[in-house]
């Protein structure tokens, strides 16, 4: 990254490569909260190494101690990256400074439970107005979504603060922040020193896990997480035959028919209420075993499978 003008394209590449939510913000797809038939882009708050806002803002002794231990962990990771101890401590302090500012601009855990506080639908111009210093066209082009024009910006005030951060931070500070979060996102897949350091803080200190899972269990979990439906397709090909699915679906339809018969016999419901109940029953989508149409899986350099 030669200058801050390179940040949008680089950030897009890092989001695609790591899938990390810690790189300033989260960009993903989700159901339109006002239209259940539509999936739209979501621009969400992020940028934190600790789980949420409260870890940075609470003033009790336990929270203070946890932040101290987190900063020490960040410094040790910079040390594993090859930085001298003094530089690593200064870099960890800068990471804490940036993350704390982003945390304070984020909604609290309680506020995030209110869906109305997290739904702000806008077009590309509205998104750009929140962060005028960020080249969204460059970002969207790099992630392959240059024609996108509908977004849910879950926390507009967070993105305003993010824009202030991007304007005020120097290039070196942004690089420090990104180096930490890329190392954090990839630590479980690096050498044993990174794996053990990552587990020591996030596994033991933060979540109280007594020991690291065996490598084979971590590998199985990773395959499941990354190949999901493709792995499921292979499994049902061996263990859940089309005939078994047909029988299960037949049984399900019999149950639904029995429910419909009961609804039609109920005397205490009005005709209008019965009709609504039947509409609700008929709107049920049966998901038996596996989908009728598998998601297309694209092999790099090949055709959709």
Sum up the structure in keywords:
alpha+beta; four-stranded mixed sheet; 8% strand; 305 residues; single chain; 13 helices; globular; 4 strands
Can you tell me about this structure?
Helix content is 58%, strand content 8%. The protein is α+β, with helices and mostly antiparallel strands and 305 residues long. It has a four-stranded mixed β-sheet. A hairpin with a 2-residue loop joins β1 and β2 (35-45).
Helical amount: 55-70%
Number of H- or I-type helical stretches: 13
> How many strands?
4
| General shape | globular
Describe the main β-sheet briefly: 4 strands, mixed
Radius of gyration: 24 Å
Helix and strand pattern: HEEHHHHEHHEHHHHHH
Determine the N-to-C terminus distance: 36 Å
Low-pLDDT stretches are 298-305
Spatial order of the strands in the main sheet?
Answer: 1-2-4-3
Q: In what range is the share of β-strand residues?
A: 5-15%
Structural class: alpha+beta
Determine the mean pLDDT: 92
């Amino acid at each position: 990254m030669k200058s801050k003008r390179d940040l949008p394209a680089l950030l897009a590449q890092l989001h695609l490569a790591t899938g990390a939510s810690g790189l300033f913000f989260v960009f993903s797809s989700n159901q339109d909260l006002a239209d259940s038939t539509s999936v739209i882009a979501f621009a969400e708050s992020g940028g934190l190494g600790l789980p949420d806002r409260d870890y940075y803002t609470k003033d009790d002794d336990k929270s203070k101690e946890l932040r101290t231990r987190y900063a020490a962990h960040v410094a040790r990771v910079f040390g594993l990256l090859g930085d001298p101890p003094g530089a690593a401590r200064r870099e960890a302090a800068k990471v804490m400074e940036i993350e704390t500012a982003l945390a304070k601009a984020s909604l609290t855990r309680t506020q995030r439970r209110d869906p109305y506080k997290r739904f702000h639908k806008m077009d590309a111009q509205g998104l750009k107005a929140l962060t005028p210093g960020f080249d969204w066209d460059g970002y969207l082009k790099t992630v392959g979504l240059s024609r996108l024009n509908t977004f849910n910006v879950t926390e507009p005030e967070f993105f305003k603060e993010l824009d202030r951060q991007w304007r005020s931070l120097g290039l070196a500070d942004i690089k420090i922040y990104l180096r930490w979060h890329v190392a954090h996102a990839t630590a479980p897949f690096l050498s044993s020193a990174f794996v053990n350091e990552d587990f020591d803080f996030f596994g033991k200190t933060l979540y109280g896990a007594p020991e690291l899972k065996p490598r084979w269990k971590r590998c199985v979990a990773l395959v499941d997480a990354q190949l999901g439906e493709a792995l499921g397709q292979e499994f049902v090909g061996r263990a859940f035959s089309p005939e078994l699915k047909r029988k299960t679906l037949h049984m399900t339809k019999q149950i639904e028919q029995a429910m419909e018969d009961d609804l039609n016999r109920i005397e205490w419901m009005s005709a209008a209420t019965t009709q609504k109940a039947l509409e609700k029953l008929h709107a049920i989508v049966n998901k038996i075993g596996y989908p009728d149409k598998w998601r297309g899986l694209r092999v790099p350099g090949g055709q959709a499978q």
